[in-house]
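Hi support team,

I submitted a single chain yesterday and got back a structure, but I'm not sure I'm reading the token output correctly. Could someone confirm the output below corresponds to the sequence I sent? I've pasted both exactly as they appear in my results page.

Thanks,
R.
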Amino acid sequence: MSFSAIPLAGSKPDQYAQLLEQARGLMHGERDRVANAANLSALVFHALPQLNWVGFYFYDGAELVVGPFQGLPACIRIPLDKGVCGAAASSRQTQRVADVHAFPGHIACDSASRSELVVPLLDGDRLVGVFDLDSPVPDRFDADDQRGLEAIAAAFVESLR
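Hi R., thanks for writing in. Yes, this is the structure output for that exact sequence:
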């Protein structure tokens, strides 16, 4: 398989629609979560500006365990009551944090991270894990980013069925 990323163009919602189409193309016909998470991490990391970490943590029934990612080495295990990832997993709500240093219990895996967006990965009521993006730029993520990344996370979960 050969893949060529198509540069994103237009408004931010248009760019996320293009990125979602590329993501679905990468995952088409593949159900392995590690393979799809690896490709999605690389796709998003290289497509979106101002990111220093993009990746997945998978829920093992007790805590989140690092999965495929792009960026510096990461925390291996995250309890559900710790950090932004734990908050997203336990609340089952996307966490969009403008300043991670102001977030109670933030886990600093990469000291350069200033803002973060974490989308819980849910298959019905079952927690699969989280999709985590960090940026060295404060307040990097807005509502358009959240909607676009939630759509990509949903496509990832759909690929597992």
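A quick pointer for reading it: The chain has four helices and six strands. Let us know if anything else looks off.

Best,
Support desk
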